[in-house]
Every structure is written in structure tokens, then in C-alpha cells.
């Protein structure tokens, strides 16, 4: 079995990789960010994607959504430090098979991999309860524009990166601000980030 581990924090990735190599006989490949992971997913065969959520380039949830669109049989397990309701709900919507916090024992992760490969879904019980929380009001287009705005990008830069008109960017950001009752794009990005919607 081949596992792709996508994690941008080198120390965390190295520790997880070492634990997995010591504790199982599965072949492990590492990716340092979402874009690198996507390239590997497009060119190599994997059985499981173990991914963080927040990474440079594509997020773990964007990778899961891409796999879902491709109707891939690769199982996705999210491992994160953030147990936000928005993340859990979006992960479930993207067909993620497992959702664990990074402070879980390695035995829990190994058991989760086995269960997921057997066709089961493994979600930490507290996180599952969180998923019943608030609904994410943002559309994917609003989310992408807001994420870039939160990184300090200008309207023109966002338009270039998303291949859309500046007016369209302003519309997306205005909609997001209205939905989140924010006075500006920075506050909207902060609110969405706290809720796990970005």
C-alpha cells in the first residue's frame, strides 16, 4: 500500500513519516505543500492521502475535492491541529474518509488507515459533533477570493490569479463581507478563517 503524506511543516512531516515508517510496512511518499501533492496524485498511484488542511498552494480540502471530482478511489484522511466546525463539514462534503487531530496517538492514526481502507469512515467523535455547528455561507468563488484578500493581495492581483475581472472580484468580496457581517475584506477573511471556512 502506498501513502502520500502532504504536510508543509517540515518537523511535523518528518515526525509523522518516521512514526509511520517505524509502525507499518506501507510505502510512504512525502509532499511539502498542496501543489507538490497534486503533481504526485496526477502522476503516481496511491491508496491513501494523509493531508494537513492549511498548506501553501492547494489546501488539503482542495486536494480532497479534486480527488472527488476525478472519482478517484484514493482514500483521504485529514490530520490537523484545527478542529473547526467549518473544516469538518467541508471535509465531509469533499468525501474525506477520516478526520483526526495531530495530537492523537499514532496507534489511532494506524487504526484509522486500516479502517478507511476497509471502507469505513473515521471521524473523531468531538469533531463529528462540531460538524453539526454553523453552516458555511460562502461559495467556492467567494472563498478563493477571500483567501487571497486575507493574504494581502489587491483586487487586481486576485483578478489575475483567479482569471476573472476586477469587478467580479469586488462582487465576490462584497458578497462574502455581507454574508459574514464584516466591515471590510480583512475582517471577513479573519472571521471565515476562525470558523474554518477558508
Automatic annotation (TrEMBL):
Residues 131-196 form the HTH luxR-type domain. It comes from the Bacteria. Pfam families: GerE (PF00196), Response_reg (PF00072). InterPro entries: CheY-like_superfamily, Sig_transdc_resp-reg_C-effctor, Sig_transdc_resp-reg_receiver, Tscrpt_reg_LuxR_C, WalR-like, WH-like_DNA-bd_sf. The modification 4-aspartylphosphate is found at residue 52. Residues 2-117 form the Response regulatory domain. Keywords: DNA-binding, Phosphoprotein. SMART domains: HTH_LUXR (SM00421), REC (SM00448). The keyword Phosphoprotein applies. SUPFAM superfamilies: C-terminal effector domain of the bipartite response regulators (SSF46894), CheY-like (SSF52172). This is Response regulator. It comes from Rheinheimera tilapiae. The lineage of its organism: Bacteria, Pseudomonadati, Pseudomonadota, Gammaproteobacteria, Chromatiales.
